[in-house]
Design a protein that fits this description.
alpha+beta, 11 strands, Arc Repressor Mutant, subunit A, 2 domains, elongated
């Protein structure tokens, strides 16, 4: 399958991980008395999550600086009125996200570097085109209901699972910008078989109606084959962007899609974000 994008992605963790704090931190250690008033717990969810958000908030807002040593777990458990086990769990999660570095016998420090994940919004290609002030159109080129393994194999679904296979071409001001091949898991979205897609494109329909909890993406630079070049109105071998995205909901595959877009007609953008930043709406 070839593929492309006008929708966004969410990538995997990037970076080389947090750098170790200096042997002798340049910042002074934090003390219980120096903790700001807004480091208090917010009352939302488990206590370890509340402590995690409180500590991450101080780091994300720049109030706790790289290299500073945190109060020890006993002090934090006394401050928040919780068990050391609860504090330990919160600190472990922050260390996993790259906010903190724990050093044996030295203590826990604010990291000098942080692992973030690179995020791109999943949005409909029609919205992208409209945002650019252009006219969006799409055309369904092929539609088939079949079972996994019958000519097409979706690796993460058992053979025999009913699926809907779609092929679609997307246009901006009459110019083709994206080719799409999509598989939909009919065990998860059985109602899609009754949708004609005469008015609404498959991507828009799915974004509006089907919940998803995670998405995995693979992005590659490729050259257009003769077949794809003819569909997209470019020369064979033209530079294109290929994106494969699988969307999941509660560990069940919902849709697998391959997008192929012309390199000079499409742009991807995103940002680095941590789970704690998402929780804090920062």
């Amino acid at each position: 399958m070839q593929g492309l994008v006008g929708q966004g992605l969410t990538g995997q963790n990037r970076g080389n991980g947090p750098a170790s704090p200096p042997e002798h931190p340049v910042q002074t250690g934090l003390t219980i008395d120096s903790l700001p008033a807004d480091s208090a717990l917010d009352g939302r969810g488990p206590l370890f999550d509340q402590i995690k958000r409180a500590v991450a908030g101080q780091i994300l807002r720049g109030r706790w600086q790289a290299g500073q040593r945190l109060p020890n777990e006993a002090e934090l458990s006394s401050l928040y009125g919780v068990s050391r086990q609860t504090v330990h769990k919160a600190i472990a999660l922050l260390a996993r996200e790259g906010f903190l570095v724990r050093r044996r016998r030295a203590g826990t420090f604010v990291a000098t570097g942080r692992r973030d994940r690179f995020a791109l919004p999943i949005e409909d290609i029609g919205d992208v085109v409209a945002r650019e002030g252009r006219v969006y159109e799409f055309r369904i080129r092929d539609r088939r209901s079949l079972r996994n393994g019958e000519g097409i194999r979706w690796p993460d679904l058992p053979d025999g699972t009913p699926i809907l296979a779609l092929e679609c071409l997307h246009f901006s001001d009459g110019t083709p910008i994206q080719h799409e091949r999509r598989l939909v898991n009919l065990d998860v979205v059985p109602e899609v078989v009754d949708e004609s897609f005469d008015v609404v494109a498959p991507s828009r329909w799915l974004v509006d109606r089907v919940p998803w909890s995670s998405a995995d993406h693979t992005v590659r630079a490729v050259n257009a084959t003769a077949e794809m070049a003819a569909l997209l109105g470019v020369e064979a071998g033209a530079a294109c962007l290929s994106i494969r995205r699988q969307t999941m909901h509660l560990s069940r595959p919902v849709t697998l899609v391959h997008f192929l877009s012309v390199g000079d007609r499409f742009t991807l953008s995103g940002s680095s974000i941590t789970d704690s930043a998402t929780e804090l709406n920062l």
